[in-house]
Amino acid sequence: MDSQGHAILVFTFSLILFFHSPSQTNASTEIVEGVCNQTIDYANCLKALGSDSRTPKASSLKDLAKVALELAVANATESKAYIDYLLDKNRTAPIKVCSYWYKLVVASFRSALTELEEDVRIANYDVKIAGDDANYCENALVSAGVQVPSISTRNNHMKLYSSIGAEITYQLTIINY
Prior knowledge:
Blueprint: H1 3-36, H2 42-50, H3 61-89, H4 93-118, H5 120-143, H6 149-176
């Protein structure tokens, strides 16, 4: 191949790479913004999803669903461990109730992640249940007149992840059915 042909080939390849990368990022941005617009907290949704380096590479709702649900599982698992740590220090009934509900929050998010591959409608149900379970923890604190801001913050995060997961899986049900 002559040098001019080689230069044209390199230039063409460079253009393909240049235009492909931004469009993938733009597609990801559109997907993320489309989901976050429908959640309980747009700004914190963007922040939560933006905290994972895989989000800009998510080229489909299903890719984003995996990222979001894996974030939810990780955060729920860490929150459960934190609540259990508090429970070891202070065995009050509301914290014990929260420990129970967080076991279910973790299980629901894990189930949703698994169901994403099998039945997205069940995944949608599971993420909604995870949010309800975090709400039951918050209700236990409020009912007992106990203020544990660190648990309340975690409950709000779980409700956000539930909202994100519910919206993504809802959109997936529309696409798939």
